[in-house]
Amino acid sequence: MRLSRRIAPFLVGASLVMALPYDAVPHARVKHAVPDAGVKAGKAPDPQPFGADCRVRVTGSHVVAYCHNPYPDTDHVTLHIECDRWWDLDTDSAPVDAGPAMTVRLTGRCWEEVRSAWVDHAK
Fold first, then answer.
1. Helix (H, G, I), strand (E, B) or coil at 59
2. Residues with Cβ within 8 Å of residue 79, at least 6 apart in sequence
3. Residue 37 pLDDT greater than 60, yes or no
């Protein structure tokens, strides 16, 4: 019984040491050269490009984002604002439809400083 209590911490520590290096090593991305012959049997077609190009501008406590969608599919964009002060509420805008060849404007603000602001995309 005493022997297992002495070995258990060692086994747990050794398993953690063995697991950490594997997770810490970046995995190399390998791209195989395949001749482009269109859609082959059993392969899915290449995905269509998607996503509006958004530019977010922070001026003091105000945030303005302009999103232009150059693609044929509608992009549902949402503005997220994270405020710097702990008492200042972070905000998320309602999703706005950015149709094909359409530019939309999203706005929001904090009471004080803005820590970060970004736009999410959804189909």
1. strand
2. 56, 63, 65, 92, 93, 106, 107, 108, 117, 118, 119
3. no
